[in-house]
């Protein structure tokens, strides 16, 4: 059995986490600029979606790596924030991203998941998938991150 299956479900300390995260997401001008959308948010997990347009593509036609990193970072941070106390926001300490293949598709989906939530540092992992017009999904990047209450 995978280790993730053995972990107990995360418990939030903020019953209003979904509302707080939606409000925080809406205040981020960079996310508005690229057209990112907040998807499903549950304790320890967050999904960020991005419809791919020319404004986020690089010179080869793929989604720019900086954009892939941005939505991965945001999905991981908000996954962590679901487990924080009410009124507490989040800051990224660091992240490492592995680009597995070009981000080529009509939609990107970043799914952040808490690995370990601590009082001062939370570790998350985010998988970023590219979705083609026919619905075919392929993982284009994996991001590991640490964040802190901020």
TrEMBL record:
Catalytic activity: a fatty acyl-CoA + H2O = a fatty acid + CoA + H(+); a long-chain fatty acyl-CoA + H2O = a long-chain fatty acid + CoA + H(+); a medium-chain fatty acyl-CoA + H2O = a medium-chain fatty acid + CoA + H(+)
Known EC number: 3.1.2.20
Keyword Cell division included in the entry's annotation: no
Gene3D superfamilies noted in UniProt: Hotdog Thioesterase (3.10.129.10)
Domain Thioesterase: residue ranges: 60-129
Sorted UniProt keywords: Hydrolase, Plasmid
Annotated TM spans: none
Family: Belongs to the YigI thioesterase family.
Protein name, per record: Medium/long-chain acyl-CoA thioesterase YigI
Annotated source species: Sphingomonas paeninsulae
């Amino acid at each position: 059995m995978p280790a993730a299956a053995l972990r107990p479900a995360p418990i939030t300390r903020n019953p209003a986490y979904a509302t707080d995260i939606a409000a925080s997401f809406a205040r981020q001008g960079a996310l508005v600029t690229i057209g990112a959308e907040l998807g499903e948010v549950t304790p320890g997990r967050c999904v960020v979606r991005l419809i791919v347009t020319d404004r986020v593509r690089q010179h080869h036609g793929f989604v720019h790596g900086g954009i892939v990193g941005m939505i991965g970072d945001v999905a991981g941070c908000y996954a962590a924030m679901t487990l924080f106390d009410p009124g507490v926001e989040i800051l990224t300490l660091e992240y490492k991203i592995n680009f597995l293949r070009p981000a080529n598709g009509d939609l990107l989906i970043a799914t952040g998941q808490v690995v370990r939530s601590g009082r001062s540092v939370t570790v998350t992992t985010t998988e970023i998938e590219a979705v083609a017009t026919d619905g075919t999904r392929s993982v284009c990047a994996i991001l590991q991150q640490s964040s802190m209450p901020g």
